[in-house]
Design goal:
heterodimer; A: about 290 residues; mainly alpha; two-stranded antiparallel ribbon; 11 helices; about 70% helix; about 0% strand; B: about 425 residues; alpha/beta; Rossmann fold; 4-stranded parallel sheet; 15 strands; about 45% helix; globular
Chain lengths: ~290, ~425
């Protein structure tokens, strides 16, 4: 009994931390799911776009004096605009080809973008302070929870639900879903499908940049900050079911927990556990936990 | 993946050069015999890039200029490659460098696991390994080699200097957050031995996956729950930056627990910012603003890649290359190229002198001796601007800073 209490005391902070990690997984996999679900493109540039969000926040602060709150709105717009440019000039030419081409292109873009930032800013990272309003924290008894981490979870949940609502419950969302199934037919009704695709990609990218701004005060702002996340996030998307919005949200938070618990029980397995689960899910439910086969 | 590609390109370029060899004129072959080839192998894209990376190559180039070796009619060629912090990648590059490209000296290697793999390989081929980047004290201990010189620092020195300072300040019980590879293990071992030797205890440790861990908060929570007086960070580069940053965020030190950055580089402090890093105690063997010689050296380096001030690893690359060139000029290029062991023996026989580390010498086990400095990171008020980060607390002379020659279990010493 005593050992159980001890375990729970140890586990409680890890569950809270798992929730925070899960928030980032959910936000990033959500963007990926939106892009894959609507455009059928596996966006390997997502990690680089996440990183760009953090860097743009840093640039806005150091070069233009615009703080965190401004960056939270401006950075996604700026990075989203870059995404629109990438979609217009490159990705849109690949829709008719196999998935593999889109994957290779976006992977190449990620390498180029990360390389550019690495050459200009080094790898050690740039400091970005937590905004004054969100400093401090709450003593939960078993641990100290920084206010900012709580804010991240809150923002992630709000953003996830908002995206889910737009796509599943609004008229725009229904156009989008229809355009995925029957693009020609939707176009015949007078909807500009290519423009909708472009904006959807821009929105997915903006989600990644939004996560990047949220991450800037926690992790150092550095060129490889996305690369370390993106592989896990892809596993999340696969486990949740490619293209399933709700799937990626729920799986993101869930895997954050699982990882938190693994870090307590057997740390060397913490990075692998996600892929272990992915393998099991693929073997038993190839379409993913929430996917429709 | 970037690195594979880079390796491929290096390989392709090397292949092209070598493929042409049989058709080269006698004059060209004579020139090849008169050419020293140096391969700088380090992290060009990951978490150790800023403290080694292209800056190390830049420092080696300065050593070529200042040694006057080219004025003696000896050509020096420098190539660089990325080992991605993976022993398999590092071994492949070095095997190709030695077997196909005729590389005589491998330098730097900031990742201990890669350094240990290359150490064996270089010894088999009787070439030279001038290790500036790696930390593991095994390079001059159980795995010491007559072909290797361990130049800049090692885990024993860090344990004794930083660990010693914290134990002396009352840190009797320790918990380690350790990067899960050769370096982290060696550093944890050396600090643990030192702490126990001083009557302290080690209450536990947690091993964090390397590379690829960005969030250390759960590991730090475990460390805090152990109620140890000191949390020792047996990691480096970006891992240390994230650990220190997140420890501040979660107020890990609020109950009086102290945080010990066992290997902190100048570039890490720059990235953390003084607001977070102030008060940290750390050990280095080189700091650009230490004295007139180091300031002069830093000025001669000019603009470093990435606009950073030189780290001790990069300074070590300069000093090791400079000393090697002195040995080559002393013994002749043919003899130096013929046997790595002989060239290293010549380097050991000559006292060292350079602006980065001052006067020193190289021991039989391959350990380069120079003073170790204990620094404290300045507060934002104390600092006059970017890169003005350290104040000197203590200097330990080279003969005392490192593990005694006969205590490491190096076979070269016993024979």
């Amino acid at each position: 009994m005593e050992s159980l209490i001890f375990f729970l005391e140890d586990a409680a902070p890890l569950l809270v931390l798992g929730l925070v990690n899960g928030a980032f997984y959910a936000l990033l996999s959500l963007g990926l799911a939106v892009i894959f679900g609507m455009l059928n493109v596996i966006n390997f540039t997502h990690g680089a776009q996440f990183m760009m969000g953090a860097f743009v926040a840093w640039m806005l602060l150091s070069w233009a004096g615009i703080g965190y709150w401004g960056a939270l709105i401006l950075a996604p717009l700026i990075v989203g605009a870059v995404g629109v440019l990438i979609e217009k000039t490159m990705i849109s030419r690949l829709y008719k080809l196999d998935h593999l081409y889109g994957l290779l292109l976006t992977f190449g873009c990620a390498l180029v973008i990360e390389g550019l930032f690495r050459n200009n800013f080094g790898v050690s990272g740039l400091p970005y302070a937590v905004p004054a309003e969100l400093r401090g924290g709450i003593d939960l008894g078993f641990m100290f929870l920084p206010t900012y981490r709580g804010w991240v979870v809150l923002m992630a949940v709000v953003m996830c639900l908002l995206t889910w609502y737009v796509i599943e419950k609004t008229k725009v969302g229904s156009y989008l879903r229809a355009a995925t199934e029957r693009p020609q037919l939707v176009q015949a009704f007078g909807v500009n499908v290519p423009r909708m695709m472009t904006l959807t990609y821009g929105a997915g990218v903006a989600l990644a940049a939004f996560a990047g701004v949220l991450a800037a005060p926690i992790y150092s702002v550095r060129p490889d900050m996305g690369a370390s996340f993106i592989i896990t996030v892809f596993a999340v998307v696969v486990i949740g079911g490619m293209g399933s919005i709700m799937g990626s949200i729920v799986t993101g938070f869930m895997l954050g927990f699982v990882q938190g618990v693994t870090e307590l029980i057997y740390p060397p397995f913490a990075q692998t556990v996600v892929f272990f689960i992915m393998a099991i899910v693929l073997l038993t439910r190839p379409a993913g936990l929430f996917g429709r086969a | 993946m970037t690195l594979d590609r880079r390796t491929l390109i290096t390989g392709a370029a090397a292949g092209a050069t070598l493929g042409g060899l049989p058709f080269q004129s006698r004059q060209a072959r004579a020139q090849a015999a008169n050419t020293i080839r140096i391969g700088v192998l380090n992290d060009q894209s990951g978490l150790y890039r800023d403290l080694s990376g292209p800056g190390s190559t830049h420092a080696v180039r300065l050593a070529i200029q200042e040694s006057g070796i080219t004025q003696r009619g000896i050509n020096v060629e420098v190539v660089q490659a990325d080992h991605q912090n993976r022993p398999d990648v590092g071994s492949t590059v070095v095997r190709q460098w030695i077997d196909r490209d005729g590389i005589d000296v491998v330098m730097d290697i900031p990742t201990s696991s890669v350094a240990l793999a290359v150490n064996t390989l270089v010894r088999e081929r009787n070439k030279i390994f001038l290790a500036s980047g790696p930390a593991t004290s095994d390079l001059t201990g159980a795995q010491c080699s007559p072909n290797t010189i361990h130049w800049t620092y090692d885990t024993y020195m860090l344990a004794r200097s930083t660990g010693g300072a914290l134990v002396a300040a009352g840190g009797r019980s320790w918990f380690f957050v350790t990067a899960d590879y050769a370096f982290g293990h060696a550093l944890e071992r050396d600090v643990s031995n030192f702490v126990r030797g001083q009557g302290g205890t080690v209450v536990g440790s947690v091993r964090t996956p390397f590379p690829g861990t960005t969030d250390f908060s759960s590991f730090l929570q475990q460390a805090q729950r152990s109620r140890a007086q000191v949390i020792g960070l047996a990691n480096a580069g970006g891992d240390t930056i994230n650990s220190i940053k997140q420890a501040a965020e979660f107020r890990i030190t609020r109950g009086g627990t102290r945080l010990a950055g066992l290997l902190v580089f100048l570039t890490d402090v720059d990235s953390l910012g003084l607001e977070v890093a102030q008060g940290l105690v750390l050990s280095e063997t080189f700091y650009w603003d230490l004295n007139d010689r180091t300031r002069n050296f830093t000025q001669r380096l000019g603009q470093m890649p990435g606009n950073v001030r030189p780290s001790m690893v990069q300074a070590g690359c300069y000093a090791a290359a400079l000393h090697y060139f002195k040995a080559v000029m002393d013994m002749g290029v043919a003899a130096a190229k013929a046997s790595g062991v002989e060239a290293v023996n010549r380097m050991k026989a000559m006292p060292t002198s350079d602006d980065a580390f001052g006067e020193g010498r190289i021991r039989r086990d391959g350990r380069k001796l120079h003073p170790c400095y204990l620094f404290q990171v300045k507060t934002p008020q104390e600092s006059s601007g970017r890169w003005d980060y350290y104040k000197l607390l203590n200097t330990v002379p080279g003969e005392e800073a490192f593990r005694a020659e006969n205590a490491g279990g190096c076979a070269l010493v016993q024979s």
